[in-house]
Each structure stands twice: as structure tokens, then as C-alpha cells.
Design goal:
This protein has about 325 residues and is of the alpha+beta class. It folds into two domains: about 150 residues, Rossmann fold (3-Layer(aba) Sandwich); about 160 residues, Sandwich (Tumour Suppressor Smad4), CATH 2.60.200.40. It contains ten helices and 17 strands. Strands 5, 6, 7, 8, 9, 10, 13, 14, 15, 16 and 17 form an eleven-stranded antiparallel sheet that branches. The chain has a four-stranded parallel sheet with strand order 2-1-3-4, sandwiched between helices. A two-stranded antiparallel sheet has the order 11-12. α2 packs parallel to α3, α6 packs across α8 and α7 crosses α8. The longest helix has 16 residues. The chain starts with a strand and ends in an 8-residue tail after the last helix. The relative contact order is 0.17.
């Protein structure tokens, strides 16, 4: 029997049929699964449920919801070898898409029973002592993602972000970013700065930078200078360049991108900051660092390559004596 804790966020667009599907799956496999389902009601609940699951030594923690739910659940699991199963149920599901997890709920649920499923070590980031799984946005990206109304996201899905992005363009202006990446300082003007663990845009194989990876032990720092056509074309070029992942295919086109383990960003004026699409604070300075191999995530065998270290799900107890994040 596998002991499963399922954390479900009803504020992320979950409907009754989705909850019924989760319950029906567990009922159909009652001979092999021993589940407990928790519904979140407030910020911090997912993290608390995950921490309790670790204390209870469960076999898998499954999280259903959006990027915020995934981030909280991951924060609760960090420092343990309890693997996380991401069940896509939010508006964007960026991390699950980046990891190749099925976008259909029933297919994602089946991973916990798949003998060929793998467990992949995934990094996390920390910004001013708060964790993020995807990225921390400063300026325009933060305003665009964090201020989209929950009701709009539930009704319109990704279009809610698109509509909000156009609304925010009206008050867009450049600010000066002073960035320190692993001790080197750079000064750039831009409308947004992103500190990324995942540089995925939420579409399979498409990323802001070709060499970004959630298991590489590095943060990707990106500054977008403006929203003029030339800049947008450069950004789109890099997004589609990520499909081939070939550093020689650059065409002489570059965007401001750095990689490092420790990052500090300073601004002259207070800027809005969000982490994983959730409002964080307004500030003139943030500091971030990477937490290598912070959590373990269940992924399908087709989502892994020889270059990415994984462990078979069935062998996790024998193979993972402790999480590298605590070493």
C-alpha cells in the first residue's frame, strides 16, 4: 500500500468534476493506495499539509492547483525525500509543463502507479527568505501575473493574463536595475526583471532562454528593456531558439541574460515583486539564491533524458537516503 496525501486548492479553478475524478481514482485503486485528501482554504495551508505529510512519512504528496499551490507544497517538502506529484489544475501549470507532466488530470494521477515513472531532483529559489519554484518577477511581469483577478483566471484561463498584460501597458515605463550576479555587477534599464528557476513560458519546450533548466543549480536572470517591436522580436527569437537548444544558433541577436547562484537587484524606486504569480511586496532591493536539488518530483519516463539524473519511483526509498538540499 502506498500512502498518498493529496493537497487540493479549490481557489485555483478546481470544479466538482475534478475533485470527483481524484476521489474516483483513489476509490478504483483502494487495494494499492491509501489516500488522504486535504482542501486548502488560506495561504500557507498547502505548505502546512505538506510538512505534516513529511512528518507522517507518506510515500507521495500529490498537489492539485496552480503555480502558487505547487510552490507552497514544494516549500513544505523541501529538505525531505518525499516525492511530489504535480496534478495540473491551475491557469498556467508552468512547472508541470516544463517537467513534461501530462496536462490531463487522469493521466497525471496514473503516474503514481506507473512502474516506469521517475523521480527527478528539482531546484528551488529563495528571494528575501521566501521560496519560489518558478520565478520571481519584478516590475511589469509581476504586475501582469499577480494582479490578474482570480475570477477572470477561472473563467478565461490564460486569456486573463493576456488581457491584464495589455491593461498594464498603459502605465509602463523603464526603471534602472543594478544587478549583482555571483559578485559581478551590471546596470540595465528595463520594464521588468525576472529571476528564474524555470524560464518556461508554459508551452512545452518553449523558454525565455535556451540553456535554462530547473535542475542545473543556477538562476536565470533576464531583463526586458521595453515593449517595442524590435525587443519583442528578439525575445520571441530566443523563445523559439529554445526548441533547438543550440548555442550556435543566435543570429547575432541577444537579450540581457545572466546565470548565477546568488543575485541581488536594486532599483531607485519601489517596484512590485511577485513570486510564482503571487503578490510578494514592493521594494527597492531584493536578494535571491538557488537551492540545488531542493525537492523530488515524479515525472513520466518520456520526460527525462540521459543528461538529467533521475531515480525510478519504485526505488526511491532505497536510492534517496536524504535530500541533497539538506547536505
Amino acid at each position: 500500500m502506498k500512502r498518498i496525501v493529496a493537497i487540493v486548492n479549490p481557489a485555483s479553478g478546481v470544479n466538482r468534476s475534478a475533485l470527483d475524478s481524484i476521489q474516483a481514482f483513489f476509490a478504483a485503486h483502494r487495494d494499492t493506495l491509501e489516500p488522504v485528501i486535504h482542501l486548502t482554504q488560506a495561504s500557507g495551508d498547502a505548505k502546512r499539509f505538506a510538512e505534516q505529510a513529511v512528518a507522517d512519512s507518506v510515500d507521495i504528496v500529490a498537489a492539485y492547483g496552480g503555480d502558487g499551490t505547487m510552490m507552497e507544497t514544494a516549500a513544505g517538502l523541501m529538505g525531505s525525500s518525499v516525492p511530489m506529484l504535480m496534478l495540473p489544475g491551475g491557469t498556467a501549470n508552468v512547472m508541470s509543463i516544463d517537467l513534461g507532466i501530462p496536462t490531463v488530470l487522469d493521466d497525471a494521477l496514473k503516474l503514481m502507479l506507473n512502474p516506469d515513472a521517475q523521480v527527478r531532483a528539482v531546484d528551488m529559489g529563495s528571494i528575501d527568505n521566501e521560496y519560489f519554484l518558478l520565478r520571481a518577477g519584478i516590475g511589469y511581469e509581476a504586475e501582469m501575473s499577480a494582479s490578474a483577478a482570480r475570477g477572470d483566471k477561472s473563467k478565461r484561463g490564460r486569456w486573463a493574463y493576456v488581457e491584464n498584460a495589455f491593461r498594464k501597458l498603459r502605465n509602463l515605463r523603464q526603471v534602472q536595475y543594478v544587478l549583482t550576479v555571483d559578485g559581478e555587477t551590471y546596470v540595465r534599464k528595463g520594464v521588468t526583471c525576472m529571476i528564474c528557476n524555470s524560464s518556461s513560458i508554459g508551452i512545452p519546450n518553449l523558454r525565455f532562454v535556451y540553456n535554462g533548466d530547473v535542475s542545473d543549480g543556477l538562476l536565470d536572470v533576464i531583463v526586458i528593456p521595453n515593449m517595442q517591436p524590435v525587443t519583442l522580436l528578439k525575445t520571441l527569437f530566443h523563445i523559439f531558439r529554445s526548441v533547438v537548444a543550440d548555442p550556435t544558433v543566435d543570429g547575432g541577436i541577444h537579450i540581457d541574460h545572466w546565470q548565477g547562484k546568488e543575485v541581488t537587484v536594486q532599483m531607485r524606486e519601489r517596484q512590485f515583486v511577485a513570486r510564482d504569480g503571487e503578490p510578494f511586496k514592493r521594494t527597492k532591493r531584493v536578494s535571491a539564491h538557488i537551492i540545488p536539488q531542493a525537492i523530488y518530483v515524479v515525472v513520466p519516463p518520456t520526460a527525462t533524458t540521459a543528461a538529467i539524473p533521475t531515480v525510478p519511483l519504485e526505488d526511491i526509498d532505497e536510492s534517496l537516503d536524504r535530500n541533497p538540499a539538506t547536505a
